[in-house]
Amino acid sequence: MRVLLVEDDAQLGKAVQTGLQQQGHAVDWVRDGVAGESAALSGEYGAILLDLGLPRQGGMSLLQKLRAAGNQQPVLIITSRDEVPERILGLDAGADDFLVKPFDLQELGARLRAASRRAVGRAQTVISHGTLVVDPAARHVVKSGVDVQLTAREFALLLQLLENRGRVQSRTQLQDALYSWSNDIESNAVEVHVHHLRRKLGRELIRTVHGQGYTIDELESFDPAHATG
Amino acid sequence: MPPAEIKSRWSLRGRLLALLILLMCLLMAAGAAATYFEARATSQRMYDESMRQTGELLLQLAQHELEEHGPTLGEALLRAETLPGPFAFRYQVWTEDLRSSYRTANAPRTPMMPLNYTGFGWTVIDGQSWRSYSLWNQDHSLQLQIAEPLESHRGLPGEFFWRLVSTLAVLLAAGGALIWWIIAHSFRTVRTSAQLVAARSASDLRPIDAQHVPQEVAPLLEALNRLLERMREALDLERHFTADAAHELRTPLAAIRANAQVMQGARSPEEFASASGDLLTSVDRSGRLIEQLLAMARLDSGTDNKGRFTQVDLATLVCAQVEEQQPFAARRQIQLASSAATAVVQGDRDLLGILLRNLIDNAIRYSPPHTRVSVECLQHQRFVELRVSDAGVGVAPTERARIFERFYRVSGSQDYGSGLGLSIVQRVAELHGAHLEVGSGPEDRGLCITLRFPGVAPAGLSAD
User: Are B58 and B146 in contact (CB under 8 A)?
Assistant: First the structure.
């Protein structure tokens, strides 16, 4: 998942960025409210991590502008103020979740997954697709009852396609989901990851739409014959 | 407070009640005594008057008898015996030569009073005190002496006295009860106020209603309310400070935690090394913040620092602090310079050290590399001037007043000071009666903080 981190504290920002990268996310980090606003409005993020005490523009004001502009990206507030009125204010302003400093990076990851799950309208924590079962929390993939080992990028790509089943994802979209601004991207990186996924999970899972990108088709129904075939 | 202490304390109400009732008793006793003596004197006058009239009448009668019948004593005596009424008179009528007399049978045979004595007098008959009256007839040939036992006079004022006393006793009882009630009623507002104060919980610092209390109690309650107000302000300040402090500590703490977790999940030695470096930085930051918080708390609680004031040479402190901060300045590629000549102020050496450290640290922290931070210390005629200036980004004039606020940081600043440094500087300056001024540094760049301490003559030259 691609995450936007808006945090002014150098040490905390860097640690959260690295920590989320370790969990397989692509993290863009900006240090003030104004940069945060332009980044949030111009990018497609799986979730936005927002500190409240920001220079140039407070996090709450950023959030309100974002929601006023009709932007529905999930927003998680990270704050050092844990009073109830503050939480109410944040949630009412359109935040999806609230995390008080100091927090656990694993918990942050779990809340990010939950927020993005809610954003795509999925209640189950595990994604099933035919014989394929993907657990985003455990970053665990099972194909026909057999564990499959994926790299962080392969996993992120698979998740991005599964969460947008039936919709064609352009190469740029997929690239954005996998890489933050700081990463050097090789021009054929997405193709390489798709190639590896097909090798590990079967050729038929990811369909190439020529000139547009890639997609995983929605299954017709829960027809067992189809599912096992 | 121990209850014994309360017991031994005198009660305004009790004292007032006792004194008023005592006063009432005294007044009533005095009134009763005055009334009794007045009544006795009045009754004496009345008895005297009636005795005089009786005497005059009897003298006329006796003279008449004498003129008509000659000196037939027995008859006159009989007349005298039959005097009617409650009168206990005895009388004698004497001729000038004492040869004959009329008298009542129970009257002594000798004159009750010497003949040369006229008017009212006292005499003793049969061991008892008698009131007497003597008078001559017109040609001084007959003297009448009339006497009455004092005992017969006492009955009336005595009876009057006891009636008066019993009436006063009833009045006293009623008056005492009334006084008690009035005092109890008047003091109820005091007790109500006391109960209002006593019922307060320690955290409830709202003012106590002083609207419906008497003039005498109101100043006490108003003083108490002012105290409560000051306590509330102090408590609010402290509460804010604690909240802010907790808030400020959370961010470095979050960074410490996150870095520790990044180290656990490090994918490369480089990532591990970088995170551990950041972890140390965050720990140092927390440590510094805690140090500053403690300094601030100490400054807040220390109100009697003046007792520890001695004469301090600011110049030596400046040299020591500049020396101490040189490595930090060098790391940041800041040229730290000082110029100081002996400048003596009255103050606390440790606090002044903290003030200097914070001023210099702040200047270095907010200066770009390859600039200069200068510390100057000047002894003027009447004051000592301390000036710390840098060539950093400075502070907009509109923001200058705010830089002394706790946890305020210049917006957009990349460095992470505790946000307390200048608050501490301000507090120490305040404790030393120093004037604090914020301006621009050299060539209108950066920030220059000037402190003016009240000057003192160097030790040895001054008597005080």
Answer: yes
